[in-house]
Amino acid sequence: MRALKKALEERQAQRLRLIDLARDYVNRVASRDDEPIRVVAAAVIGSVARGDFNPASDIDVIIVSEGLPGSPLARADSMYRDVGARIEPKAFTRDEFERMAANRNPLAVAALTEGVVLLDPYGVFRSPPSH
């Protein structure tokens, strides 16, 4: 039993380290001075959020932001500029995210139901999607 408890504690510590990597990434994006991007919410989803990650798992981060470039290439450039190893950002405007939630998009549903919230001062992730 002691070995199992130790293994579970180490697994939880690994998960928290991965979440901290995501938090650091979101903080870098949110603190940029050179772009009009304003992060309004961020959450980790996927295997890291659920705790069933493996050594090859990426860290899926949903970012809801205002001021995102409209062009997919410019948006990707903006999100991947400060990305660290294993971070897989997915960025949406608040309107885009709300439409995704209303349409039960799997990414939005994951953020709302199982996401590990990193930042959400405006309550973007507080209301689960309606059925």
Secondary-structure map with pairings?
Blueprint: H1 2-30, E1 38-45, H2 47-50, E2 59-66, H3 72-80, E3 87-92, H4 94-102, H5 106-113, E4 116-119
Give a structural overview:
With 131 residues, the chain is an alpha+beta fold. It has one domain (2-119): Beta Polymerase, domain 2, CATH 3.30.460.10. 45% of the residues lie in helices and 20% in strands. The chain is built from 5 helices and 4 strands, in the order αβαβαβααβ. It has helices at 2-30, 47-50, 72-80, 94-102, 106-113, and strands spanning 38-45, 59-66, 87-92, 116-119. A 4-stranded mixed beta sheet has the order 3-2-1-4, sandwiched between helices. β2, α3 (72-80) and β3 (87-92) form a beta-alpha-beta unit. The longest helix has 29 residues, at 2-30. It starts with a helix and ends in a 12-residue tail after the last strand.
